[in-house]
Design a protein that fits this description.
326 residues, mainly alpha, 3 domains
Length: 326
């Protein structure tokens, strides 16, 4: 005997329900379907059409079974979704770049280093670590969602104090930490490449007589500038001027060393084995990157200062609206 449409629907739903609940849910679901069908038949529909409409309105039997069984049909629920998203964003913007840079620097100090191997190590680390960060973070939140352990600690009640401040020039603590982290990493990399990892440093050791200490000072001053902007709490023209001076001085120092072929150490294994053309291409690429980075930094800060000075409306990302930031 062929199962009816109602039987097929009910059997499909019961597959996902614990066995001890099936008899009760079978009776309840069939009664609900019969009531819906009878109401439609009384309204003038044919019985076959009424059955189809009633089952269509009930929807996917698997989802209906989950609701009967009290089973969650989502990975991360709305209570923890915001915390999960913020956690991933923090990991991807703060932790992942640091790990990639560290791996690339370590690879740069290997005996058989090449430009391709450094780029390959960076890309491989970016993908591998990124997947692990996303997987394990999501798994941890999934466990909390299902067990409830620690859920109250993560799901902190929202208050007005947590509203973002849309004020020109007010930098968050996260932005301040990021602006301080990069100078620390750059100075650490500059020092470590000279004294650790390999017998020959990557950068020309002759520059320790003046140029590398001067570069460290400029990098440290950029960190001081970031703290100054954070404490000042607004964009001003002196802020833009100091930033431009630091950007120009740093770029000029780097470009002069790269252009005169005194930036990289010719005795370093990766460059000693490569031809002069390869070193020249690498130096040219770094010059272009340095100049573009400096120009963008100057333009970006100057733009923010002028917007703050004129009270120009600034678009809040994702809102589609412009607000005058004060």
């Amino acid at each position: 005997m062929t199962a009816s449409l109602v039987d097929r629907y009910v059997f499909t739903a019961l597959r996902r329900v614990p066995e001890q609940q099936r008899a009760d849910i079978d009776r309840e679901l069939r009664a609900s379907i019969d009531d819906a069908v009878d109401a439609r038949v009384e309204a003038g529909e044919s019985r076959e059409a009424a059955i189809e409409r009633a089952l269509t309105e009930l929807g996917d039997p698997d989802r209906l079974a989950d609701s009967y069984a009290g089973r969650q049909n989502f990975l991360i629920g709305p209570e923890l979704y915001g915390v999960w998203r913020r956690s991933l964003k923090l990991l991807f913007t703060m932790v992942l770049p640091v790990v990639v840079i560290v791996v690339a620097v370590i690879r740069l100090f290997a005996d058989d280093v090449t430009v391709g191997s450094v780029i390959g190590a960076a890309i491989s680390t970016l993908l591998t670590v990124g997947v692990h960060l996303a997987f394990w973070t999501t798994l941890a939140f999934w466990i909390v969602e299902r067990t409830g352990a620690g859920k109250d600690d993560l799901n902190v009640p929202w208050t007005l104090a947590r509203l973002p401040r849309y004020e020109t020039g007010v930098r968050s603590r996260v932005e301040l930490i990021a602006n301080l982290l990069w100078p620390v990493l750059l100075i650490a990399a500059l020092v470590l490449q000279q004294f650790t990892f390999t017998d020959e440093p990557v950068l020309d050791p002759a520059n320790w007589s003046f140029w590398w200490p001067a570069l460290i000072v400029l990098i440290a001053l950029k960190g001081v500038w970031a703290v100054w902007v954070y404490r000042l709490g607004r964009w001003t023209r002196p802020v833009a001027v100091v930033n431009a001076l630091l950007a120009v001085a740093t770029a000029a120092l780097l470009v002069s060393l790269l252009a005169t072929d005194t930036f990289f150490n010719p005795e370093f294994g990766g460059f000693a084995d490569a031809g002069a053309d390869v070193r020249g291409w690498v130096s040219t690429a770094v010059i272009v990157a340095v100049v573009l980075s400096a120009l963008w930094d100057i333009f970006d800060i100057t733009r923010k200062v002028e917007q703050a000075r004129k009270g120009v409306p600034a678009e809040v990302p994702g809102s589609g609206r412009s607000y005058t930031l004060i």
